[in-house]
Amino acid sequence: MSSKLFAIVIGAGTGTGRSCALRFAKAYPVVLMARTPTSYQDTVNEINSSGGKAIGISADAADVASMDSAFESIKTDMAGLRLAAAVYNVSAGYGVKAFLETKVEDFDASVTGNARGFFLFAQKTMPLLLDAVGAGQYPPTLIATGATAAVRGSAKFSAMASGMFARRALSQSLAREFGPQGVHVAHAIIDGGIDVPRSKGYVMNNGVVDGKLSPDAIAESYWHLHTQHRSAFTQELDMRPFVEKF
Amino acid sequence: MSSKLFAIVIGAGTGTGRSCALRFAKAYPVVLMARTPTSYQDTVNEINSSGGKAIGISADAADVASMDSAFESIKTDMAGLRLAAAVYNVSAGYGVKAFLETKVEDFDASVTGNARGFFLFAQKTMPLLLDAVGAGQYPPTLIATGATAAVRGSAKFSAMASGMFARRALSQSLAREFGPQGVHVAHAIIDGGIDVPRSKGYVMNNGVVDGKLSPDAIAESYWHLHTQHRSAFTQELDMRPFVEKF
Amino acid sequence: MSSKLFAIVIGAGTGTGRSCALRFAKAYPVVLMARTPTSYQDTVNEINSSGGKAIGISADAADVASMDSAFESIKTDMAGLRLAAAVYNVSAGYGVKAFLETKVEDFDASVTGNARGFFLFAQKTMPLLLDAVGAGQYPPTLIATGATAAVRGSAKFSAMASGMFARRALSQSLAREFGPQGVHVAHAIIDGGIDVPRSKGYVMNNGVVDGKLSPDAIAESYWHLHTQHRSAFTQELDMRPFVEKF
Amino acid sequence: MSSKLFAIVIGAGTGTGRSCALRFAKAYPVVLMARTPTSYQDTVNEINSSGGKAIGISADAADVASMDSAFESIKTDMAGLRLAAAVYNVSAGYGVKAFLETKVEDFDASVTGNARGFFLFAQKTMPLLLDAVGAGQYPPTLIATGATAAVRGSAKFSAMASGMFARRALSQSLAREFGPQGVHVAHAIIDGGIDVPRSKGYVMNNGVVDGKLSPDAIAESYWHLHTQHRSAFTQELDMRPFVEKF
C-alpha cells in the first residue's frame, strides 16, 4: 500500500460505494463519506479489521458548510497524503412518479443530491487531485456514478433524469477542463439494478442469476479506470447485466 | 386567427422569445412572460398595434409563488381559450468560467433558471395543453429552447451545461410521458450565436453574413414543430448557421 | 412555380418518396427516380395531370453506370434549370434476421442500397446543388431518409443497421463539408412504421389512429427543412407517431 | 495459462493488434491474423520466444473464401480449445479526402474492410464464442476497435466514417443479440492518434509526451473488458490521450 496517497468515496453505503471503498482500500487508505455513520461504519470496520485503513466522515455532499467542515477533517486526518482517487456515488431523489404528481421538492432533491453535491465534491477534490498529478503510479482520478437516467429522459423519471443529466454534464465539463492538466475524470452509466441488500426483494430480468449488477464488478471497473494510462483515458463507459434489454 | 386558442412564450426578450411571440401571434393571442416588462413590453405593443393580440405578464419562471400568481392572471385574461402552444425560452446563469472560479451560486442560478423554471412552467402548462388536445388544428405543443451546452459539457461551461442538460432531460421525459396523450413536446438545440441586439458587437464565424442564427428563422422552425401532424412528431432537432463548425 | 429550379426524389415509390415528389412539385418540376417505372409512373402522372411537372427515370442508385446514364438524361431533360433539392429515400436490404442466419449477401444489399447508393447520389447531385447556391429563394438542400436503425443497432438488425448507420455517417460528413459552401444537408430519423399501401396489413401501436407515420407529414417536414434560412440549418431531426415508444 | 482456451486477434500489425496479441497471450494461446505474414510474424515470434504460444494466419477478413479457409486452419490448429476472446482490429480505407475527390472505390474499401470484414469475422467467431460460454473464467468476448469516425461524420471523412459507423452498428446489434446468451460484445472508440512505428513522424497534440495513445494501454483496457463479470458488461467506452480535444 502506498503511504503517500489516499482515496475518497462519497455515497458509501451498502452497494457500489461500499465495494469501491473495499477495492480502493487494497491500494490506499480510504475516506468513506455519507450522511450518517450507519451508512459507512460497517465498511470502515471491515477495512480496518482486514489490514486496510479507513475512516468515515459524516457529511451532506450538497451542503456547503457540511462539505467545508468535512474537508477540514480530511486535511487533518490525511495530512501528508495526496488524493489518488475520488468517487462520487451519492444517489438522491430517486422516485418513479407521474410528472403531474411530481413535486418541485422532488425535482430539487434530485438536482441537489445528484448534481449540486457532485459540483461541491468536485470543487473540494479537484485541487487535491491536481496536487497529486505525478505523485502516484496512476493519474489522479475523479469518477462519478451515472445511470440510464443520465442519458435518457423517461416517462415518470423527470426529476431523476434532471439531476442525473446534470451530473453527466459536470463530468464531461470537468474531463475537458482537467484532462489536459493530468486529472482523469470519468462517468459510468450503470444501466440496470444493482445487487444490494435492499434490492434483494426486487425481481429483475426475471430473476436470472447475475441479472443485477454486482457492485464488486462495478468497483473493479472503477479501479481499472483509475489505472488507465494518461494516453488512453476513458471518459465514459456503460455497464449492464448481460441479460438487460437496452 | 382562431378565437379558441392562445399561446404562451416565456423568456420573451429581444431574440428568440420575441420572434416566437410574433410568429405565434399570426395565429393566436399570445401571452409574453418575462421577469420585467422591459423585456416584453415593446413586443406586446408591436403585436397589438399590428392587428394581433398580446399581453405581457411579469413572472419568475423558477419561483413557485410567482408562477402561481402569473397563471391565475392568465386564467382570467385568457378565459374561454385553450392553450395551443407554450415555449420555454428562458436563459439563465450563462457564464463561461473556469470551474474552480465558478461559485455554487453560478451552478444554482443555471439549474434554477434553465431547468427548475422549465419544470414549473411545464407543471403549469401541461394540464392546459392536455385540455386542448383535439381542440385546434394542430396538436398542443410545448417547446424548449436548448443549446450546444444541452448535449455537450465543455471546459468552463460546468454551470451552464448542468442546467441545460437538465432542461433536455425534462423535455425528453415529458415527450415520452405526454406524447401518447396527444401533447407534442420538443427540444431545439440552438448551436451558435443568435443575432440579437445585444450580440451585435460579437464577431462570430469571422463576421460572415448569416453567421449568427436569425431568431425569426428559429421561430419559423418552432412554428413548424407546432404544425406537425401527430403521426410524425419531432422530439429534437438542431439548428445552426451554415458556417458553424460542429 | 419557379421556372429556374427543379428537384429530384430517388426511391420514389408509394410512401415517403411519392409524398415528397408531390410536395416539392408544388414549387418545382420534379424528377422521380426508382429502379422501375412501376414505382414512380402513377405519381408522375398524378403530378402532370394536376398542373405540376414531373418526369420519371429508371435507375439503380447503387450502380455507377446506371447513375451516370440517369444523370445524363436529367441534364438534358432539365436543361437550363438548377437543382433546388434532392431527396434520397431508397430503402434496401430490409430484413429482420437472426445474425447467424443473416447472409453476407444481406449485409451487402443493405450497405449497397442504403449507403453506397446515397454516396453515388450525393456525388451526382452535390455539384448541381453547389451550382444552385444563391439561385433560388431557399438554400439548395440534400435530404436523406434515415430510420431508428441509423442510430441504434438492434438484435436481428445487423445488416439493416450497418447500411443505415453508414448513410447517417455520409449525411453528417456532407453537412460538415458542404454547409459552409451553402448547401443544406439533413438527415431525418423516421422512428416508426409508415402508413403506406403495403403496410396496411401491419398492426402497429395497437392499431391506434395515426399510429403509423403519414408520408405526407414526413414530406411536409422535408419541405420545411428545405425552406430553412441558412443561418439556422437543421442537420438532424427525428419523427415518430405520438404513441410510439422510444 | 489455461490450456482449454485461445484468443484471436485480426488486424494484427504493429499497433493495437500487436499489443492485444501480447496481452492476451499472457493468458491464452493466440491466433494472429492479417493479410500478410509481414504484419504478424514478428509478434508471433516474440510471443513464442517468451514463453507464450502464438500462430499466424494470413487472411483477408472481408473475403468469404479466405475466411473459410483461415477458420478451417484454426479449427485444426486449435483443436480441443475454445475461443475465449476475439478482437477485430482491421483498419481499412483510411484517407482524408474531399468528398468530390473521393472515389466510389474509396467508399467500397472502407465499408469492406471496416464493416464487411467485421461481419464475416463475427459470423466465424460467434459460434465459437457461444460454444465457450461457461468454459473459462471470463465470459467469451468479441471486441471491435472503433474510432472517432465511428460516432461522428466529418468533412473529408465520408468514406472512413461510413465504414466505421457500420462497424459500430454491427457491434451494437451483436451485443443486443448475444449478450443475453452470455457473449460479451464491446466497441472501443479510439479517439486520437496511436503511438505506432509508422506514426512516429506525425506530431500530434503539439508533440506532448503521451499525446498519442499507447497501444499497450488500449490492450490493457481490452483485457479488462474481457475480464468483466457478466452482470456488468460494458458495451462501449472511449479512450483518448489526456491532452486530446474532444
From TrEMBL, chains A, B, C, D:
It comes from the Eukaryota. Pfam families: adh_short. SUPFAM superfamilies: NAD(P)-binding Rossmann-fold domains. This is Short chain dehydrogenase. It comes from Pseudomassariella vexata. The lineage of its organism: Eukaryota, Fungi, Dikarya, Ascomycota, Pezizomycotina.
